[in-house]
Model the fold of this input.
Amino acid sequence: MKERPEETTPLPAPVVDSHCHLDVTDRHLGDTLDPVQALALAREAGITRVVQVGCDVTSSQWAADFAAERDDVVAAVALHPNEVPRLVERGGQDALDEALGVIETLAQRDDVRAVGETGLDYYRTREAAAQAVQHDSFRRHIDLAKRFDRTLVIHDRDAHDDILRILAEEGAPDRVVFHCFSGDAAMARYCADQGWWCSFAGVVTYKNAEDLRAALRVLPRESILVETDAPYLTPVPHRGKVNASYLIPHTVRAMAEVRGADVEQLCHDLWDNSHRAFGAF
Done:
């Protein structure tokens, strides 16, 4: 069981955790916090707002309901790209259509600010037929974001070219966030040119992530977000332990060092960018 890291030195100004999964509990992850406790610890560290993200019908429903109870949480709802082939395998196209119908209903709720995380994942889904199902789902999520004026939150793993191609073919929504950005500097520049946001998780602190740090360096101030993807992707020095929003200060300080930026100014930028991406809350 993974140990829960100790609390961190608070940030000098508040920031938003732009992507987390407060509802995820798994004995293999270790000592995960209950959602209310997680938010209390986050607030003490200077993380005063959280975007709670759904990955299937159950977690999306939970995200929407939890956000409705809290002033410091907004929700994103979607079918994760790896969930989509599993749905089709279990119940065929009808199961996918039914699940997307639930997501469509949830996406219209006031506290749901985003459709996501959606996109493509070629790391865990390698078969051509399964990838084709992901493509269809991604296109349908893009349509939902556009119809209901919601931010599109993209999961992109080993699928950069097809993600960008489908966005171009469908026409991107007004607001697009690349969750746990994993592209290089050229892709970061392209995203910035489109007015999209690149969100950085604890991965940016890992020794082997120099390409990611190069991407962070070239982005303009207005294009950057920070996230945990908690309980996953815990930043150094706690890599390998369970993640939570209160650990974002490690990531923010590492980002400031990479960019040669003042930590407090970066906090202000991240705050402003998050509210432009997801609306004030």
